[in-house]
Design goal:
alpha/beta, Rossmann fold, Oxidized Rhodanese, domain 1, 2 domains, eight-stranded mixed β-sheet, 13 strands, 37% helix, 16% strand, elongated, binds adenosine-5'-triphosphate, binds zinc ion, Probable adenylyltransferase/sulfurtransferase MoeZ
Length: 393
């Protein structure tokens, strides 16, 4: 199914533009008309991280006339293994600004719009309304459902990608011509069931494989060439080196884009929709959070504690807190961990930075270990405040 071009062509290309884009211009399918459409196009990339890095670099190089970049985060050293739009000297800098600088260096002929904010229900409709197409490079379900809902409500195509370890997926969701993200994934996964790249890792170059597919689809949609990935899910296995696509049908019962939609505006709270802890549960976790210093004091006093590291074996091997027993979070989710916990000791949980241990803590408390606590900031906080000679990751 080919689709008409998403944007009208710009009136003309300048002499500089003709020189710069000549290798596009001589492809018959792109040509002058296609390049003028790219010039007139406004594309927003959500997230300047793993997928956003290659996506932004190639969208800019291709001559997309207005490129929006939205990210609230700052560049961390552990980002540089894959977020190639940022360099060593950008560590600590706002990602959107760092990305904008790289993009302008690659192509000074385009307009770059920097949004140094978190995309939220307060701003998503207004921000999206200024763009023709959304490329999603984010890493969390709450943002994806929000991006999808806003894109459907505004009738804009949503170019989605997802990566984990050696596996990638991509698709184009566009309710007017095919399924939306909710047709494919009607419900978010239970909290904690799908590990993030921060938990499970990701091969850096996988970002380029999937991010460049997203750009490829964006260019096809903007210029109206080829078969867009609408109604198809592309699945990439980097270890087996296999690409395959499977059909995704529009769900007539979809709550958002189906025949009788029940979702007709943005949800109030996408975090809650994706199963973030309720306020009560969050308070319980906050009340049971200790610092790395408090843990060290407990150990020095010889308190009767059982320290559990809920990360994965390979993370444990990178750096660990002395005295910790490894029981990965998955074992808390499936219940196996509970048999390994002593009844007569105070349970202290930790992970990398406090997210996974908070999830495990809720399970442990529910199972009756009412005085269990977890270490806020996890092993990273231990490294920072107790033993800076240890590595961070
Ligand atoms: N709601 C949002 N608004 C703006 N930017 C977002 C939003 N949600 C996620 N992002 C950004 O999307 C990017 C996702 O990239 P990626 O998963 O590679 O990165 P990361 O969060 O830097 O990595 P890690 O979690 O491994 O430390 C991040 O830069 C993140 O700040
Ligand atoms: Zn749908």
């Amino acid at each position: 199914m080919s689709l008409p071009p998403l944007v009208e062509p710009a009136a003309e290309l300048t002499v500089d533009e003709v020189r710069r884009y000549s290798r596009h211009l001589i492809i018959p399918d792109v040509g002058m008309a296609g390049q003028k459409r790219l010039k007139n196009a406004k594309v927003l990339c959500v997230g300047a991280g793993g997928l956003g890095s290659p996506a932004l670099l190639y969208l800019a190089a291709a001559g997309v006339g207005t490129l929006g970049i939205i990210d609230f985060d700052v560049v961390d050293e552990s980002n540089l293994q894959r977020q190639v739009i940022h360099g060593q000297s950008d560590v600590g800098r706002l990602k959107a600004e760092s990305a904008a600088a790289s993009v302008k260096e690659i192509n000074p002929l385009i307009d770059v719009v920097v949004h140094n904010v978190a995309l939220s229900t307060d701003n998503v409709m207004e921000i999206f309304s200024g763009y023709d197409l959304i490329v999603d490079g984010t890493d969390n379900f709450a943002t994806r459902y929000m991006v999808n809902d806003a894109a459907v409500l505004l009738g804009k195509p949503y170019v989605w990608g997802s990566i984990y370890r050696f596996d990638g997926q991509a698709s184009v969701f566009w309710a007017e011509h095919g399924p939306c993200y909710r047709c494919l994934y009607p419900e978010p996964p239970p909290p904690g069931m799908v590990p993030s790249c921060a938990e499970g890792g990701v091969l850096g170059v996988l970002c380029a494989s999937i991010g460049s597919i997203q750009v490829n689809e964006a260019i096809k949609l903007l210029t109206g060439i080829g078969e867009p990935l609408v109604g198809r899910l592309m699945i990439y296995d980097a270890l087996e080196m296999q690409y395959r696509t499977v059909k995704v049908r529009k769900d007539p019962e979809c709550v958002l884009c189906g025949k009788n939609p029940s979702v007709t505006q943005l949800l109030d709270d996408y975090e809650a929709f994706c199963g973030a802890l309720s306020e009560d549960a969050q308070q319980a976790v906050t009340d049971s959070t200790i610092t790395a210093r408090e843990l060290k004091d407990m150990q020095d006093r010889g308190d009767d504690i059982f320290l559990v590291d809920v990360r994965e074996q390979n993370e444990y091997e990178i750096v660990s807190i002395p005295g910790a027993t490894l029981i990965p979070k998955g074992e808390f989710l499936n219940g196996a961990a509970l048999e390994k916990l002593p009844q007569d000791k105070k349970i202290v949980l930790h992970c990398k930075s406090g997210g996974r241990s908070a999830e495990a803590l809720a399970i442990v408390k529910n199972a009756g270990f009412s005085d269990a606590v977890h270490v806020g900031g996890g092993v990273l906080s231990w490294v920072k405040t107790i033993d800076p000679s240890l590595p961070s990751y």
